[in-house]
Amino acid sequence: MLRRMALLVALLGALPALAAAATLRIGLVADPDTLDPEASGSFVALEITHAICDKLIDIDPDLNTVPLLATGWQWSDDRKALTLTLRQGLVFHDGEAFDAATVKWNLNRYQTSPASKRVKQLEPIKGVSVLDPATVRVELAAPYAPLLMLLADRPGMMLAPRATAAAGNKATENPVCLGPYAFVRRVAQDRIFLRRAANYWDPGRVGFDELQFVTVPDANLRLIGLRTGQLDLIERVAPTDLDTVRGDQRLRLVSKPGLGYQLLQFNLDNGPAADNPLGKSPLVREAFEASIDRKALNDVVFAGAYMPDNQPEPVGGTYYDPDFPVPARDVARAKALLKEAGVEHPSFTLRIANDPVGVQIGEVLQSMSAEAGFDMKVQPMEAVSLFDAADRGEFQATFAIWSGRPDPDQNISIWVASDGFLNRGMYRNAELDGLLARASAILDTAERVKLYREAAAIYLRERPYLFLYHYNWLWAASTKLGGFVPYPDGVIRVRGMRPE
Question: How crowded is residue 348: how many other Cβ atoms within 10 Å of its Cβ?
Answer without folding.
Answer: 21
